[in-house]
Amino acid sequence: MVGAMRVRERGFDAKLRIAVYADEGAGRMGVDSIMQSFSPRFSGADLQLVYAADICNAILDDFDCLIIPGGADLPYCEKLGGAGSYTDS
Q: Most buried among 39, 41, 42, 63, using CB within 10 Å?
């Protein structure tokens, strides 16, 4: 819901900004599949790969949505730790 509110704040025709996690734990095939399948379906969206360091440096403030592809969760946890974990309330 927060992403939808951000899009409305930017204007009705604003591009949806989608971050795709592409660091350790995210399978390369999963990342590639998301990029290939979302691009034609969301031609008005801006898809960008992001990495753990980006997330820990608050890059998600610039996005409406984060997609984390399938893979292994322990590497996500190790790379993101507490700095990359937050709730938007």
A: 63
Report yes or no: 44 and 15 within 8 Å, Cβ to Cβ.
Answer: yes
On whether the CB atoms of residues 79 and 23 are closer than 8 A, the answer is: yes
Render 27-77 in DSSP notation, one character per residue: -HHHHHHHHHHHHHHTTTSEEEEE-HHHHHTTGGGG-SEEE--SB-HHHHH
Beta bridge partner(s), residue 46 = 17
Query: With 0-12 CB in 10 A as exposed, 13-18 as middle and 19+ as buried, what is 65?
Result: middle
Nearest to 61 by CA among 21, 30, 17: 17
Q: One-letter amino acid identity for 49?
A: L
User: What's the predicted TM-score (pTM) here?
Assistant: 0.74
Domain boundaries, the chain: 2-80
